[in-house]
Input
Amino acid sequence: MYGLNTFKANGSLSYSTDDVTWNQVDFFMVSGGGSASYTYPILSGREVLTAQMLINAPPFTRRALAHTITVSGTTVSVSGGSEDAYILVLMR
Amino acid sequence: MSYGFIATNNSNQVLISSDTRNLHLIQKISSPTEVTVSIDVYGGIRVLRYRATCNVTPVPFFTMPSTSDFYGCTRVTSAGTGLWDIEILKSGSASAYPEVYVFADPRGATPTDAYGMKVFKDDGTAAFDSRLSPLAITGGLNLTHPSNPKPTFPYGLNSQHCNSSASDSSGVFIPTEYNTYSLSLPSKPMFYYPSLAQAEREGTYTSSEEECDGVWVKGNCVGAYRYYYWNSTYWCFYRGGIKRSTNTVYAGWMCADYGCNWTYTRDSSFGGIGTGGDGGSGGYFPYSNETINLSAATLIVGDASRYD
Output
């Protein structure tokens, strides 16, 4: 009965509070062999989803290990991978 | 949040927030910019490159036009300022290729509509812009792949000099295993699925032969003796992929590369002198019969028709 609709110039619905989505909190790169840890207060009390995308093709000289991503409270930590990767942090 | 803007749905999930950024449609790419690999053996291998234009790192969703084939986004790489190469790997030989919907935060594109609603972060950059098409999802899950793409090798291959053809060896390596997930899908689903799981499986086939130019006496060659030994190791490198049917998603495997390496040894003796051998390689893989990156993979599903 209530909510928010946004429309595009042609009158089509652009977005509605009836929708469901994941919002991007951060998107950062972690190098192979590197690590990162960030705290996002906005994650408090929210569902969190992370994803990892490899940047390069797996080499033929080593195991192409993906990073391990852990979420502890409002902190997202990334480590343990041998490859460069983009880390996507989402919430809703 | 002491100030700003937030909109939630009835489940108290955040839809718009001035503390985060919504993902918006930046670009729809209807066909690959380049088919970089096209091989019909080993279950079919197609490596597809899509060139995207986006000011920030893109989040690519793709369609799966065939319900017989597995697909996965295997990498996203910067190709210059504002340019990105999105690589999709698919199995099968079908010529229908995925459409790629490139999403990113609203800094990724400049909308042309004259009016709309825009939400800013505290640094003055856009968090939401209704003039672009914000991402709405229909579902998602964390999925895992079976630990072994191909548990059994059903028949033998030629042990000598990797002489089995790709069409022969591919039958040995076509992946058979997958996990099944029930998931409500729209009529034209699009998937965000970064493929991380990787596996290598190999089969080693050996044979040997003895030659004696003289006579065998009690199991021993009296005269010139030669012993031949052949060893061929055929291998296949797999990456995780997903397949769909009506309201079902399968987490399986796709062959991404393959090869074979061989060795040949000849021991000859006549009075105890002389040895020899040879070897060749169609490439070695850095690990053998191993699966890595098997932790849960992220899958997000949206309705592509909303962005056509």
